[in-house]
Design goal:
Length: 520
């Protein structure tokens, strides 16, 4: 993300003009003095919603955007030529909303449909713009940059909103995360930060007994590197513990060993919790990022250095200078497991959008465009935000596989019919109220076995039981009527009806008669 991923910057359709004259503003050292900078920010409304019903809200720190006020909505139709000029905007957002205005404080339960782009204009060479779905996805958008000759430089974008809404409804937790309006049309789909998605507990637990190695750099003063290895163990309380031991350079920058409960890892994957701005926090962040993006246990192995395409090695150590930038999510897996092996919301965003799907998205794919302006040595003169229609064939600049979810199991073959053989004896001994009148044999579990005995036109007894065995006795137990029936009789012939119902097989019936003889 912008500003070294410490805070997501805000994006806007703006024209940026910075006058470095008279000492009124002190810019970054890279900016050429006395040179006017101008970054156009154009809003191209292709949504199909009338400009009078499209609202634009520009908000941010160090705000200098002529014609609009900080965090105050304005109708798109009131912006001349749908273009703005920004002199400065730090950690900025440009909200687009339909029908009603919104501000920075808009809740995700709002009945108004909205989304936003992010950007920072200082201006200096590190300024970038991006789209984000870390909190939600609501409206399909695209960002393009152009030089002073109107030649396109870079672009990022997303599929149309309906494509993403439909894809989200197919993943576990996704359908419940879609917020609809009163007419049943989607307003947005919430991320795991604001809605419940299945935890990746089976994925994390699948690493028990496996060793991982971590090479993490901490960009602070002093710059610090680390090399740790460790195992996921089933011991240590709860569902187990990840224990890492290693060294840092300079020494003592993080403890050894470092222990992280597996239950905590499972709960922190979506939120990035328990990652303070320390070396140990950065190491734990990399553990979480590997699970979120499906890297651990995947085709790159379990060394974090293999998760990037350009590891750096110096006398101080080794690390991934641009994060885990190997193709991630479904592209990181050899095959699908019977459980989800990545954060599936972020995987869908990764497939259908160049937006941030989680805080780690900038490592696994390009999710920003540079807005380095001529005054700081760049070429960008205009940034255009296109608001896409809900339906169409739009697509991101870079896609990926989202197939890191649980594999769809093949339907089981239809069960073969269970063969049933029922045998009734000609006579049986009645001991008190109980008697065994025969037996049943099945080619597999007999299932539900029911015996009904009648005499004198009435039901004398009934027994029904479930048998998991392929053999079962046929028993009867007299009811009160049957007990009275045999009170003055030493023997009597009764009719017997047997029903045997194995699973997925029609019931087998047999009727017969048995001479019941009371035991003396």
């Amino acid at each position: 993300m912008t500003n070294a991923r410490a805070r997501r910057s805000l994006k806007i359709t703006l024209t940026l003009v910075l006058f470095l004259a008279g000492g009124l503003f002190v810019a970054a050292a890279s900016i050429i003095p006395d040179r006017a900078l101008a970054l156009e920010f154009e809003i191209d409304n292709q949504s199909g919603v009338a400009p009078t019903n499209v609202w634009v809200t520009v908000a941010g720190d160090s705000f200098d955007v002529p014609g609009v006020s900080n965090n105050v909505p304005i109708q798109l139709s009131d912006i001349p030529n749908q273009e703005l000029t920004i002199n400065q905007l730090v950690s900025g957002r440009v909200y687009i909303s339909y029908e009603n205005p919104v501000t920075l404080q808009v809740p995700f339960s709002s009945p108004t449909r909205f989304d936003w782009a992010e950007l920072t204009v200082t201006p200096n060479s590190s300024d970038v713009a991006n789209l984000t779905a870390v909190d939600q996805f609501g409206i399909g958008m695209r960002l393009d940059t152009y030089n002073g000759s109107e030649n396109q430089l870079e672009w990022i974008g997303s599929a149309n909103a309906n494509t993403i809404f439909q894809a989200m409804k197919q993943i576990p937790g996704g359908a419940a995360a879609v917020i609809n309006d009163n007419n049943g049309s989607p307003l947005r789909v919430l991320s795991p930060l604001h809605s419940s998605y299945p935890l990746l507990d089976e994925y994390v637990s699948s690493m028990i007994g496996k060793q991982i190695s971590m090479n993490t750099a901490f960009f602070a003063n002093p710059f610090t590197t680390s090399s740790y290895t460790g195992n996921f163990s089933a011991t240590g309380g709860g569902s187990g513990t990840l224990t890492l031991t290693g060294l840092t350079d300079p020494g003592g920058a993080a403890a050894s060993p470092l222990s992280f409960p597996i239950d905590q890892i499972i709960n922190d994957i979506y939120t990035g919790g328990n990652t303070p701005n320390t070396l140990s926090g950065a190491i734990y962040r990399d553990v979480l990022a590997g699970f979120s993006t499906g890297l651990w246990g995947g085709k790159y192995g379990n060394s974090a250095l293999s998760f990037c395409s350009n590891p750096t090695t110096t006398a101080q150590g080794s690390w991934c200078p641009n994060g885990f930038n190997q193709p991630a999510f479904g592209d990181a897996r050899n095959e699908q497991e019977t459980f989800a092996t990545c954060e599936q919301y972020a995987a869908v965003i990764n497939k259908y959008s160049d937006s941030y799907g989680n805080p780690y998205s900038d490592a696994s794919k390009k999710v920003t465009v540079s807005i380095d302006q001529p005054g700081s040595g760049g070429d960008v003169a205009k940034l255009k935000l296109t608001v896409l229609p809900d339906s169409g064939s739009a697509a991101p600049a870079n896609s990926g596989s989202a197939d890191c979810g649980a594999a769809t199991p093949a339907p089981p073959p239809p069960p073969s019919k269970t063969r049933v053989f029922i045998g009734l004896g000609k006579r049986a001994l009645l001991e008190g109220q109980n008697s065994r009148v025969g037996a049943v044999r099945c080619s597999r579990a007999c299932g539900q076995v029911t015996v009904v005995v009648r005499g004198g036109g009435r039901v004398l007894g009934r027994v029904s039981r479930s048998s998991r065995s392929a053999r079962a006795g046929l028993f009867l137990r007299l009811n009160r009527v049957g007990t009275r029936f045999f009170k003055k009789r030493s023997r009597a012939r009764v009719s017997v009806r047997v029903s045997v119902k194995p699973a997925a097989t029609a019931a087998t019936l047999k009727r017969g008669s048995v001479l019941l003889i009371k035991k003396r």
